[in-house]
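I need you to check the entry underneath: sequence plus fold tokens. Let me know what the token row says about the fold.

>
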Amino acid sequence: MVANAVFGAVRAYMGDAGMSLDDLIEPDFYFELAGPFVGGVGLIVSVGLWRLRRWAWVATMIWAGVNMAQALYAYWVSEPQYSAMALSVVIVLYLNQRDVQLAFIESTRGIIRRD
């Protein structure tokens, strides 16, 4: 999540300073406008994941779903984003492992496992 948030924020600042009406239609405009905000939210969610907060798990799953939908749309319009697809799949697979889900549930309930 940290890498994803930093990547979004950096991509926002690498955009062109001069924008035209045609630039508003481009998908990259999103990164120039909302990139820093999305990057900040991603860092907050990363801290929540580190602290095993259930809301962070849910937010990350939503984030991965939105990223996957956007990457699939980009693939549909012949601008594939394979790295975004792969990262989303890895995040979803990791967060849906039984041990990971139990860690988030136990931290919410205050249960301490002694394995």
Q: What stands out?
A: The helical segments are 2-13, 21-25, 28-50, 54-76, 82-95, 98-109.
